[in-house]
Amino acid sequence: MFTKFLNLETEKQDRIINAAIKEFAQKGYDKASTNEIVKEAEISKGLLFHYFGNKKLMYLFLFDYCYETIADEFYKKIDLAERDFFNRIRQAVLIKMDLLNKYPEIFKFIEEAYFEDSIDVKAELEKKIKELNDINLGKIYEGIDLSKFREDMDIKKILKIISYTFEKLSEEELQKAKLSPTHQIDYQKISKEAEEYFEVLTKAFYK
């Protein structure tokens, strides 16, 4: 669908992507201006729609691009040979902090996408986010050493409890960010709070 855009030289692709990410991240889907995007990217509006078709398709392309960029680097860095579940999750938190510093604009775009309420893209985004979360959760759990968990409890229920705990922690922080003027997520605070939960959950569910 985006062959014409993907056939462009890398420098031009980057200019367009960076301009669009910046505009959508700062203003959200409805208020973002394609006029501002083409101005910053130094291309014509006709070319922008030639490459993407319309604003909605461009936005959804950017979401996929941003998510894949982060996911590719994340899975290159994380050691899935680490079979201790909590050590693996700790790795994930540290890697995410590192990627946040490396790609602040991309993370800002993804954060805003999670808050996006525009009826034009909300349904598609929710579907994409759910599918991606399910895929990534499966990868994070794959190959973990179940023998470290208590034998007097149902492993599936333990993993659900752990998952629900961190999902709720994430939801609370996202909600706080959504209500704040800047929509800024405090990843240092999340990392510290997650470590406190790691200690409690390890004591509760490991032998």
* CATH class division: Mainly Alpha
Based on DSSP secondary structure assignment, what is the total number of beta strands?
0
Structural class: mainly alpha
Average of per-residue pLDDT values: 89
Query: What is the H/E order?
Result: HHHHHHHHHH
- Low-confidence segments, given as residue ranges, are none
Please count the helical segments.
Answer: 10
Number of domains: 1
- The 3D shape can be described as elongated
Helicity, as a percent range: over 70%
Radius of gyration in whole Å, from Cα? 20 Å
CATH topology: Tetracycline Repressor, domain 2
**What is the CATH architecture annotation?**
Orthogonal Bundle
Q: Quick one: biggest sheet? A: none
What distance lies between the first and last C-alpha atoms, to the nearest angstrom?
52 Å
Give the amount of beta strand, in percent. under 5%
Oligomer category: single chain
Organism: Neobacillus ginsengisoli
Keywords: DNA-binding
Domain HTH tetR-type: 10-70
DNA-binding region: 33-52
Question: Which tags fit this structure?
Answer:
207 residues, mainly alpha, Tetracycline Repressor, domain 2, 77% helix, elongated
Write up this protein.
By secondary structure, the protein is mainly α. It has one domain: Tetracycline Repressor, domain 2 (Orthogonal Bundle). 77% of the residues lie in helices and 0% in strands. The chain has 10 helices and no strands. Helix 2 runs antiparallel to helix 3, helix 2 packs parallel to helix 7 and helix 5 crosses helix 7. 15% of the residues are buried.
